[in-house]
């Protein structure tokens, strides 16, 4: 995943 | 991961645990809106579809499982547990929450970052989460007598998205290209919906009197 990805948030 | 996001996740976890504690120990869900709990189950089901396809960390996957498990078990308790279901005030919890689902779905089909199945459902879950608390806030206004655990539940639930806003500011300042307007606006709307509850919650806490919402 890209570093600016917001999907790593819950 | 930053301290704001961790604080947000822990606050969110605490809100769910407070609710599960209330329902499991005193076998009562009085004052709790089933509609809001059902909306949250839909929010997590549509938000965490990527749990099988993309892995970020043990923490991320573990928390997703906890949120999915707790939200669906709360709905199960309130619908099917022989003792708990009797304490659900069905007459008061009458918010037409399906009227929230459809507009959020339509909006997600119109405004999203990518037009893919997962992305549209993920965006839908953001919009739905922003308004999912409405049935609960309406129920609190109606029942007026808010017991401590329900008040704490709503307070923690509102606080978690507040911490997330600080997290988004931090990530915007520290990560280049971290710009997610849809997430930010939905998160801001969600937190603002709690504003009046927070006001009365602090008033009751400051004057050390029972939390009463104006009719």
Automatic annotation (TrEMBL), chain B:
It is a multi-pass membrane protein. The keyword Nucleotidyltransferase does not apply. Keywords: Endoplasmic reticulum, ER-Golgi transport, Membrane, Protein transport, Receptor, Transmembrane, Transmembrane helix, Transport. Signal peptide: none annotated. Pfam families: ER_lumen_recept. The keyword Oxidoreductase does not apply. The chain crosses the membrane at residues 55-77, 98-115, 121-140, 152-170, 182-202. It is found in: Endoplasmic reticulum membrane. InterPro entries: ER_ret_rcpt (IPR000133). Belongs to the ERD2 family. This is ER lumen protein-retaining receptor. It comes from Camelina sativa.
């Amino acid at each position: 995943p890209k570093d600016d990805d917001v999907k790593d948030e819950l | 991961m930053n301290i704001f996001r961790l604080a947000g996740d822990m606050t969110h976890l605490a809100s769910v645990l407070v609710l599960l504690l209330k329902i499991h120990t005193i076998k009562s869900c009085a004052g709790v809106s089933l509609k809001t709990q059902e909306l949250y189950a839909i929010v997590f089901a549509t938000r965490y579809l990527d749990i099988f396809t993309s892995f970020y960390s043990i923490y991320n996957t573990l928390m997703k499982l906890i949120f999915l498990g707790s939200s669906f078990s709360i709905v199960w308790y309130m619908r099917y547990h022989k003792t708990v279901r009797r304490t659900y005030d069905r007459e008061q919890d009458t918010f037409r929450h399906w009227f929230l689902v459809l507009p959020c779905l339509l909006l997600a089909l119109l405004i999203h970052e990518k037009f893919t199945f997962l992305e549209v459902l993920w965006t839908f879950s953001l919009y739905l989460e922003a308004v999912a608390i409405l049935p609960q806030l309406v129920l609190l206004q109606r029942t007026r007598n808010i017991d401590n655990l329900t008040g704490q539940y709503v307070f923690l639930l509102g606080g978690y998205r507040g911490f997330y806003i600080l997290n988004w500011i931090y990530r915007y300042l520290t990560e280049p290209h971290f710009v997610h307007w849809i997430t930010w606006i939905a998160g801001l709307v969600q937190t603002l919906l709690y504003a009046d509850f927070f006001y009365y919650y602090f008033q009751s806490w400051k004057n050390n009197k029972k939390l009463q919402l104006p009719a």
